[in-house]
């Protein structure tokens, strides 16, 4: 059977064009970008800034206050970078605020015991804080991967245990043996920003690049998206999760050391809602509570929202407890939106 | 001449239940072999044994005449054996190119590679080439998460991924069970193209019509044993069903 001449010519032409022209790529980068959480949240952040500035034009939109906000956000951001990894891997770490306190207490105690005031002491303090944080993180990771205790319960347990241990070490009193060298480190820095902020920025940049560009980051997404698929593809899932919880603990330890630099004391009672702010920031930044999706860039924007809210409420003389009320409901709303997005996608 | 894959006397027990009672199986390069059997005949267990997921209690597996121990799915892969499981094992939040390289990511050369920095453009290119050469339309979907794709497209991603790495044997567990007519057609065409490259394709299916249409040979399991082998050409559905249920004895192919 032969085709009519014209049809054959058409199909030949079609084949020709199919070979020569690259297939049309279905991408709408601009539209996709505009509907992502980080961009939406930047808009929300801008809205908050405008509202607070309108209410208190004399106090909110000042350089000093902006410095305050980023300073408040810095320690939270350090913890939020670790939380981003963990939540992308479909886990959760509720213990970060308590681990921060425990690491700060250990660090301050050791620096106090050394007694001298120089960079050597401060760096020993840093090492102690990192080690203390890492130890809690690895404990979380081992309990989750080896004992198969759910992450929610394990880290809820260490949330209590780390804070209790910190109180045991200090008998419930804040430790004020923070060397002046460390306090000075927290005060000054280039471009009017404290070194504390620069450390947080560095953590976010390195964390963001590793997550987006490396095999370690890719495996994190795979595990959160379909751990069984990762296992079948030869990824050592338990080992990877252990590293992630270790990383989260390590970063909480670093945040504890930064917090000493900022407050010159251990602020034992001041971090009970850190984990709420951190998780809210990460979720607002577009990281899915169910794993597989998220970016550190989103977390950077997301973490500024609870911080700006807190700062703004204080400045406009709303009782600061409202910030916790608001953050709590924002978290619930953000997860609800995440659920809807996910359901819509899976139905497609 | 020795066969590409030959399993003899495979026994697998789960506690008191014996799933395989000395099952045999063979496949040659470039052929599509259908593995059929009633529920509980041991198809899934046999595929798990042959793809390294479970270790057999007894029996030998030979690849090109050499006895081998697969040990794990990774061990099976080292012999060029890939499996597309019924659940596909895809990461739904990642795109098709990213899925194709899960666990085998390519890194950049030099110092960056030492830090594990991914060579994303190379992976995309290689995946796109594979999708193109397999005659799928996945190249146009490289940036879509797998979760947004249709069942047939997901199946294509899973099969293409396995084909990229399967140099010898490809197991497909019920690849068309969840698909519509057109998508099923595409997947079956894909199966033939893979076999044409010299890979042995083992198709596990319940659909007898489909089995006779796409397979070169059919092996029938019943109660944990191979009870019949057929050449697909010249065999009819009654014969297959008869062998599956034990009503007929199949003749050796």
Automatic annotation (TrEMBL), chain A:
InterPro entries attached here? ABC_transp_permease
User: Which Pfam families does the record associate with it?
Assistant: BPD_transp_2 (PF02653)
Q: Where does the record place it?
A: Cell membrane
* Listed PANTHER family: ABC TRANSPORTER PERMEASE PROTEIN YPHD-RELATED-RELATED, RIBOSE IMPORT PERMEASE PROTEIN RBSC
* Record-annotated membrane-spanning stretches: 33-55, 75-106, 118-139, 151-170, 191-212, 244-264, 276-309, 321-337
Region Disordered: which residues?
A: 1-21
UniProt topology in membrane = Multi-pass membrane protein
Output the Gene Ontology terms for molecular function: transmembrane transporter activity
A GO cellular component term found in this entry reads: plasma membrane
User: Where does the protein principally reside?
Assistant: membrane
What is the organism lineage in this UniProt record?
Bacteria, Bacillati, Candidatus Dormiibacterota, Candidatus Dormibacteria, Candidatus Dormibacterales
Per its record, how is this protein called by name? Answer: ABC transporter permease
**What is the residue range of the signal peptide feature?**
none
In terms of superkingdom, the source organism counts as Bacteria
Tell me which UniProt keywords the record has, alphabetically. Answer: Cell membrane, Membrane, Transmembrane, Transmembrane helix
UniProtKB/TrEMBL annotation, chain B:
Q: Which residues form the ABC transporter domain?
A: 5-248
The alphabetized UniProt keywords are: ATP-binding, Nucleotide-binding
Superkingdom of origin: Bacteria
Could you confirm whether the keyword Transferase appears in this record? no
Q: Which PROSITE patterns match?
A: ABC_TRANSPORTER_2 (PS50893)
Gene Ontology terms for molecular function: ATP binding; ATP hydrolysis activity
Glycoprotein found in the keyword field: no
The family database entries (Pfam families) matched by this protein are listed as:
ABC_tran
**PANTHER family xrefs:** CARBOHYDRATE TRANSPORT ATP-BINDING PROTEIN MG119-RELATED (PTHR43790), SUGAR ABC TRANSPORTER ATP-BINDING PROTEIN (PTHR43790:SF8)
Protein name (record): Sugar ABC transporter ATP-binding protein
